[in-house]
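Marked as duplicate of an earlier ticket. Keeping the data here for the record.
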Amino acid sequence: MINSEVQRFRLYVIGDNPASRRAKFNFEKITRDLFNNQAVLEVIDIKQNPNMAEDNHIVAVPTLVRLSPHPCVKIIGDLTDIPTLRAFFGV
């Protein structure tokens, strides 16, 4: 486990397509062990809320954003690239 602080994330997706489902599944899989179920994920479907993606400068989906702890960091993709994920999560 990384630390006991609740980690907050936002995942931007477009609909319920395979990449969106993979990103959600992979997020849950990796954070279950890393954060001991102390990770909070908010999923934003940009088909339903395009302004939120525009306001937050989201240019591709799926995009995962770490909201806290700061600094805010983004990663693009379906979260299958393990080396990139390890760097993103700081492990």
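See parent ticket for discussion. DSSP finds three helices and four strands in the chain.
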